[in-house]
Amino acid sequence: MQTETITYIIISGIIALLLALFQYAYKSKIKGLRAWLLTGLRFITLFSIFVLLINPKFDKVTYYNEKPNLVIAVDNSESINYLNQSQSTTDFINTLKESDALNNNFNLEFYSFGKEVNPTDSLSFDEKQSNLALVFERLSEVYNNSISPTLLISDGNQTYGNDYAYMTKRYKQSVFPVILGDTTTYTDVKIQQLNVNRYAYLKNKFPVEIIATYNGDQTVATQLTIATGNTTVYSQPLVFRKPIKSQILNLTLPANRVGITSYRAQIVPLENEKNTINNVKNFAVEVIDQKTNVAIVSDILHPDLGALKKSIESNEQRNAEILSTVDFLNKSNDFQLVIVYQPTNNFRALFNEIEKLKLNKIVITGTKTNWALLNQLQSNYKQELTNQIEEFQPSLNQNYATFIVDNLNFGEFPPLKAEFGSTSFAVPFQTILYKTVNGTQIDEPLFATFEINDKREALILGEGIWRWRAQAYINENSFNTFDNFIGKMVQYLSTNKQRTRLNVNYESFYNGNDNVRITAQFFNKNYEFEDNANLNIALKNKDTDEVKSFPFVLKNTNYEVDLSGLEAGNYTFTVKVNNENISKSGELKILDYNVEQQFLNANVTKLQSLATNSEGKSYFIDNTSSIVNDLLNDPRFATIQKSTKKVVPLIDWKYLLALIALSLAIEWFIRKYNGLI
What we know:
The protein is of the alpha/beta class. The chain is 26% helix and 35% strand. A hairpin with a 3-residue loop joins strand 3 and strand 4. Helix 11 (465-476) packs across helix 12 (480-493).
């Protein structure tokens, strides 16, 4: 309490006492004990009221005990079942739950993980992949500012995500791995990795790289075969001995038939080999007979050129070449699409050539664009000439109907630099992205497409697209989303097929561990997105003739159906719109591959290293009797007594108000009893 406040209280006491004495000792006819009693009561009343007016503040300290958290993250992937550890894991979890000592000293928090991390203690051991790095990434967001030792119950085999061995630098808690499995070494040969391109071109050969490994001490001989259907297309003997535990095989296979072709790579199992599942890997290649060649024409150097080339060539069906105007004119017949980047004075002949060949094109403008010339070379749009530069951020048009555009969080993308002023169109156009200035969306396109005279064209009003690709990587840890966005635009512009009201987006084949998701968009007769349609997909397994039907679910501006969990096989499908005579059909293949069944043992070395680096301790699931005692006796995880200090004003103290009321009541009763009222 401040000195000034104490002084006010003392003065208030003196004033209250003087007023009480003046009333009952100086002028009052009451003498003796009653006078002094009334004086005291009046003093209490006045002093209490004065103190309430001053309203001093007091520190209120509350003490409480804070238990540390015990975070229990359990591997819920199929490999736990495959290693016969599911029952022992469930029993161990029940032991932790039923331990009174643990519950009295820790706040137990249960999580299960596979490809994602979920706060739950219900285990099914059916996750198709395991991402241990994501466990530490998610837990660090919640527990880094508390005492939270972590039990990681896992076999340590990771099939997805970043390497978890380095996550202890980010996750500041001690990790206690409970290892599901043993250290027994089994003789085993397996296909460690198979690398192949998803696409190949007709009448070409496509490369396949296979990494075969051997676990054992004896010299063994086996055979690698690759077959499609009942036909063996490749065979090679393999010999492993103690110094040579792995081999890298590079081979090529012919692409003789258009469409999807499935292959089965297999190493013939050794005698008494325990795990034969990892001897086989299925893969598929889609053979196409056409490759789209895209010309990126520019007379200036800019990072956008390289970003566009990378995005376009992320799809192996496409090839992009950066050319000057002169180089393009010498080989213009080789291309199906032209990207005209910031046209300058040298582009007059280029536009004439594009018009003569009736090529589709993308025009990208920026700070170096000669708009006076560009306004003359075409009549589809005109730009107001201001000779001023402005920065425009993108905003997605949710109703864009020409092709499916995924929302890449465009609002977070860096701005593009472009000519300040309005752009007017003389033809009907569709806006993909609107311009946004200082957070306000204006009714002007930043990115638009249109069709005129059986030709398609796109206009991007700004330079700096390379920053968008970089931002997409920051957001997603991958260029894929941005590359897919550019790929869809290239696909739309490199074909002149009539647009349809129902668009279906899917992959030709999926690995068994992939999320099998198909998206669709449906438009009304005005090509406006219809958000209340009923879409269904009918899937037919070509091998069993079994037909399954699933509804689509609306998600933002797409309809989506999740087909994850389907058995491996060849499927035909038909997407239909209820109450409309509109449908789309296609084929897809799900490859038989389960990455969780590729392991024979727990990754003991990695889990023990994780424990050491995080100042924890590792245990085997068959020897967990000491875990509870170790955690309870570790001084780092003791219950901490903490206090909270709260400043409380006196006016909140209700007892003082009761004291004032009581003193006034007693004083009134005494005065009444003695006939002074």
